[in-house]
Amino acid sequence: QILILDFGSQYTQLIARRVRELNVYCEIHPYNHLPTITPDVKGIILSGSPSSVRDVDAPEVHLAAFRHKMPLLGVCYGAQLLAHTSGGEVKASSIREYGRAKLGTVKAENPLLKGIDQHSQVWMSHADTITSVPDNFDIIASTETVSVAAFQVEGEPTYGIQFHPEVTHSLQGKLLLHNFVVDICGCSQNWTAESFAETTVANLKQQLGDDRVVLGLSGGVDSSVAAMLIHQAIGKNLYCIFVDNGVLRKDEFAGVLESYKTLGLNVKGVDAKEQFYRALAGLTDPEAKRKAIGRTFIEVFDHEAHLIDGVSWLGQGTIYPDVIESVSVKGPSATIKSHHNVGGLPDFMKLKVVEPLNTLFKDEVRAVGRTLGLPEAILGRHPFPGPGLAIRILGDVTAEKVDILQQVDALFIDGLKREGLYDKVWQAGAMLLPVQSVGVMGDERTYERVVALRAVTSVDGMTADWAHLPYEFLADISNEIINRVKGVNRVVYDISSKPPATIEWE
Ligand code: XMP
């Protein structure tokens, strides 16, 4: 495997993605929490950083621990750190370089640059630049403005590059990473979804033995794939719980429960609708609604977990970005699990935790799910918020409002699927607004509810654009909703992007 030492760059996760796309396993570790270097670590990549090596409190790492011992590639800050700590000079650039640049001369005979074209386009993002390097640093590429764009330390497999090979605008960045990871480090390219599933199931068998595990399914990809892996390892000793919180999509509880059963999972469906509605009654503040749902879920889950004899593990679908977030250079996020600290931990939280997906990115989770035979209906699902329709009903939540919104949402989602638009948008849903408007149906004046449709394109939900759905589709769906859902006489389409709006309305 490859170890990536994170100095806090916004691109560190991308480096990991690219290495894994080469079918080579890698892990990110914060520079200040170095893991033990095991023999299966074949090379180390030092990431970029928002800091400058010239800062008094610049992040540093004891490079002597692995330099000479294995190949090393410094990217941007990583390269500057190598130069700086070896007696080179790093200064503020006279012009800050952000964006595309062209490599000038490239020493193509160097193993790192094998196959890289002269004048290849690369992506720069730096305020500092290496102005001089020690004599034993061989400059292997430069650009018009950066004389040290890439170097190798003579006689050792230590390299530095000023540009970012992990960004797709570095057109041959993937080839460069391939040269480093495969040719220089000698990693085998055998890390695939299949091999991951195989070794994970074998490890889970070892780890869990005859123990019992309880796991909460949500209908989403992560918990479903985690359940499938654990199920393959321990079969009926995995007890899954799927809770109907009353704010799921129309027919979702029955449909998803059925597909879990078809997959052979030992799953108990718990209808806790009334308990959730009681907890939500009269609440209008979005955060209060979220808290009520979170608290009620814990009560229900804790109760159900107690009904299972001798359970000793809690299975969770935590994925890699959550893990990186909680051990990042910037320190653990202060808000994570705040509610768990209030009034002591529920009993199920005292169980040992098993998280088979905690080294995977979302698309890798999907690939593993696919190899395990999970249906596309689960794998290709849009994200759906934990508090469900409760945060799409603006104001207080009642069973009657949920019923209306479920009908509207189902017509919208079915329409997207029918027209082949579902997979083109990242997330879609409907909001029930706390206003009524005047309409006319036949000869009658109506005074009924307004719904807003929302569909967005996005990569990760952090930013999003409103989906430019065809007008004809919007016209048909609007008609269908008003004609078929009693109590709704107006449909609007949300054309705000995130930021400044958010995807959900609450
Ligand atoms: P926003 O509305 O912040 O949403 O743009 C970004 C993504 O997060 C989802 N979301 C939630 N998911 N619990 C969740 O599990 C929540 O309280 C919650 N709020 C928003 C939202 O659906 C979108 O995918």
UniProtKB/TrEMBL annotation:
Classification via CDD domains: GATase1_GMP_Synthase (cd01742), GMP_synthase_C (cd01997)
Reactions performed catalytically: XMP + L-glutamine + ATP + H2O = GMP + L-glutamate + AMP + diphosphate + 2 H(+)
Name of one Pfam family that matches: GMP_synt_C
Entry annotation: catalytic residues: C76, H164, E166
A single GO cellular-component term on record: cytosol
Alphabetized UniProt keyword annotations: ATP-binding, Glutamine amidotransferase, GMP biosynthesis, Ligase, Nucleotide-binding, Purine biosynthesis
Pathway: Purine metabolism; GMP biosynthesis; GMP from XMP (L-Gln route): step 1/1
Residues binding ATP: S218, G219, G220, V221, D222, S223, S224
Ranges annotated as spanning the membrane: none
InterPro entries: Class_I_gatase-like, GATASE, GMP_synth_C, GMP_synth_GATase, GMP_synthase, GMPS_ATP_PPase_dom, NAD/GMP_synthase, Rossmann-like_a/b/a_fold
Molecular function (Gene Ontology), one example: ATP binding
Protein name per its UniProtKB record: GMP synthase [glutamine-hydrolyzing]
